[in-house]
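In practice, a research group might receive sequence data for several interacting partners and want a quick structural hypothesis before committing to experiments. The following worked case mirrors that situation: the sequences arrive first, and a predicted assembly follows.
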Amino acid sequence: MLALLLMLAAAPAAEEILRNADRSILGDTAAYQLRMTISRTGKADRVVEMNGFKKGDTLGLARYTLPAKERGTAYLRSGDSTWLYLPSAEKVVRVGPKQNFAGGDFSNGDIFRLSLLRDYVPTLVAEEEKDGLRAYKLELKAKDRSIAYDRVVYWVRADGTFFPVRADYYTISGKRLKTLMAAEVRSIGGRTRPTRLVMESALESGSRTLLEFLKIDDAAKLDDRMFTPSALERGQ
Amino acid sequence: MALLRIAFRNLLRAKRRNILSGGTMVLGSAALVLGSGLSDGIARQLTASLVATQTGHIQVVVRPNDFQPQNSPFDVYGQDFFLGAEDLARSLETGSAALGVDVVKAVPYVYARGTAMAGSRSTLASIIGVDPEREPELQRSLPPASGRFLPAGDLTAVYIAAPMARKLRLATGDAVSFVVQTPEGALNSLDMIVCGVFKKAAPWFDGAFYVSLPAAQSLFDQPGGATNLKILLRDGGMRSAHRTQPILARLVAEAAPRKLAKGTALQVESFDKAGRFAFAIIQANETALFILSCFLFSASAVGIVNAMLMSVHERTREIGTVRALGMRRRLVVRMFVLEGFALGSVAALVGVTIGGAMVLRLALSGIAMKTMTLAWMAGGDTLFPVLEPWSVARAALAITAISTLAAIYPAYAASRLQPREALHHI
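A structural hypothesis for the assembly, expressed as tokens:
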């Protein structure tokens, strides 16, 4: 018990760990290329590739490049609002942050949650082995009832990299809804980071979605004007 | 009176012709009574189902101020939760008695959407939180096809529609999970056990999962909240609901103010207004019956005109004789019109007797609605026609009136015959 207290006292503050974890995969501004593979029991995998962009904690954009028939479909996050552009309908529609992103296990909010620290109050509860790695265990409590997951248990590597290891997402009733696992740490875009994220549903057996970062450019110069619904419609 | 006696006696003079033309009217009035019986049965079943499962006789719901009904069965449900629903129900039950309104009960319930999951399957779910102890009429309207109805006080039981059981491959005793977004935005979930499966041949029940009211309130993180408040009156007629609606609206307005979303308000609606969709089906049935009646009446009227013209032609010499003896034209008109009336009233009597007997026979056995569309239109898997005295009287009066009116032209033609020419007629 004393050892645990000493260990926790020596660890960085929970906010500090979470702030670093928030920036450990993508920097403050980034352009990236992503492949998403959605698996469902009894169905063929669905693969989607997209180009993504993020700027600060409030702006995010993802535009499909594959499959060909869905090319141009795009999601935009600006502040607390999310929009979807469907090229076949030539329309921009507002979508909810809790809706599935591209039909997978990630919600729009999961993809475009640009800062966990903004939505949750973190508490460092332990430092322990998780998935074979030494990790800080954080309890994240939603700041209010409008946040999708009432509680998140988040493991972040305790080796100074602050890479995410695993996150369990819980509903208000305390039931685990899904689990995120980060893996395959390698150098991409000139920096070492996890490049594979797997989200598994805890309720729907066999339901999982894999995100693979194919390219990341942390030095991209992005104009605020590309993160608007009108730019979304113009395909910029 | 003497002319009326003569008119009835004259029916016997051309038996075959009168049986044929009267037969058309017999069939018409029998069809009309049967059609009315079916239409009244549909109206009664749809209304009973609407009142029992959705609106009560009067309901209280939250509506946006600019609410536009979509003419959908889901228009019935409130768009948002209101808190303190139990308190409001109690205050309506007690407060209404002092105002002379006989409220049997006021029961809150929850209707909201979510996702139901079982194994690797999931589906959009209509989650309905009810109090089975206070709503025994629900069980009568949604009897179990397997298992049992939602048990009172069981917070983990769920009673599901047969299409959902098929889609998620669920049977009694199986587990199902619900994931919902609460009105504030957070996600919540609940694991439940299937206690029974029901069949209701109306597509708007296909996605239904009935759970206990406290379970639904907990799932949507709205303790004490409801989307609808169903009020049942002792006198469940439409007039009674219309008379009571403004009184209850006043009571709701006087009750403690509730925190509602901006741009919304609590509305008090009678069941015909709340259940526009069901009443649109009833209206469509009545319109179809009216159009059918018009065709039947037209066919009957043509038959009557034809038979009476034949009668005038055959009785030309007789008309000439009575005219030569001093019978006025007005009396000739009256005599033939009364013959039309006599034929119509006899045909109506026979027709409504046959039609009424058919309705009573079908009301005992019921008519199986074998396709989903038929069951949808009839408000259930089996249609039980209803013999309403007013529908019988309407059919009898209508066929008699048509027959009488159809006799006017032949009567007028008879009255215009000149006695001298008529007497020469062979």
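Before designing any experiment, note the following. Residues 150 and 173 of chain A are 9 Å apart (CA to CA). Chain A is about 15% helix and 50% strand.
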